[in-house]
Amino acid sequence: MGERKLLKEYKRLWQARKWMKKNEPFLQAWHAHLGYSLDLFKTFQVPNTPQMIAERYGYRLDLLERWVEVGVALGHLKEKRGGKVQAKKSMVTYLSKDSDQNVGVLLKEMMELHIPTMLTYRNLLQGTEVKILEEDIGYTVAETSGLLESVMFPKIADVVKKQKVKSVLDVGCGHGGYLHRLHQKFPDIKVNGIESNKEVQKLALKEAKGTNISIIEADFMNYVDQDQYDLLMMNNLLYYFTFEDRLRLFKRARKLLQPKGHLLIMSPLARSKHGQRFASGFNSFMSAHEDMYPVPTQKELTSYAKQSGFSLVTCTPVIREGGWYILVFKKK
Ligand SMILES: C[S@@+](CC[C@H](N)C(=O)[O-])C[C@H]1O[C@@H](n2cnc3c(N)ncnc32)[C@H](O)[C@@H]1O
């Protein structure tokens, strides 16, 4: 074989290797997701043989053995004596269903919603309708958004303190995590939430039992409130609204705010300085769904603000790798 031809073949092999390597992290997510969804890490919290577990739960032994092999290769599981294996402690802590530290819902969202959606792109692009499985998406999305609370909340608390906020309305409050944190830190302020998904609102209401946090089931677009608030929040909400509706959203927000009240928006921003990879991937997912829309750019938000009587006070990157910002606007 001529030298040039050989070189060409090696280059081709190198490219194939590159894509193989790029796909390798998927194995980790696959393994973790399966382990979480069947609670296998919990099952292997104490040393067990795959055979014992397969018999106990009626699983196919050959497939369980493969999952175990992958787990050992990835370091998610450790080999013990007598053919037994044990899950690594962190896998049990963060990926067991009964652990209050578990992050399994994020894997669920990625593996059951985002990846399947991305795989439908070929058909969608060509105009074929595809039904994406959306079982309990409301619960899943509200839960994964809640994972950001510990990082985002201090920034919200700063605004509440600085602006001497006495009342807050959280629009699309999900399971009400921010409302709880606000109530705990500032017990004297009024904290209300509205949530359009009935199941999500029901759960939020249950969590708020025994407090004076109010959580109403309502679509913000038709929501009527006698009160006016010092602060209105829209956290991870904008992608539910078309570009035209976002301007209406700002106008509605303005009506519900006290003079000089503030509007706080938390969202990934498209084409921003930080997190472009994440935001562009996120937008690909959003556009593949009928009722979801791309996240905004900062320019777009400031234009809505201008048209609806707000001025931008701050725009702070909070999670740079995800392009997540908090923008604070003041009612003029
Ligand atoms: C992604 S979750 C975010 C939850 C919470 N704000 C957070 O950041 O953790 C967005 C929530 O907004 C709710 N939502 C969407 N459109 C709404 C509307 N028009 N009015 C009220 N809530 C809405 C959804 O049901 C969902 O629970």
From TrEMBL:
<dbReference type="GO" id="GO:0032259">
    <property type="term" value="P:methylation"/>
</dbReference>
<dbReference type="InterPro" id="IPR029063">
    <property type="entry name" value="SAM-dependent_MTases_sf"/>
</dbReference>
<keyword id="KW-0808">Transferase</keyword>
<keyword id="KW-0489">Methyltransferase</keyword>
<protein>
    <submittedName>
        <fullName>SAM-dependent methyltransferase</fullName>
    </submittedName>
</protein>
<dbReference type="Pfam" id="PF13489">
    <property type="entry name" value="Methyltransf_23"/>
</dbReference>
<dbReference type="GO" id="GO:0008168">
    <property type="term" value="F:methyltransferase activity"/>
</dbReference>
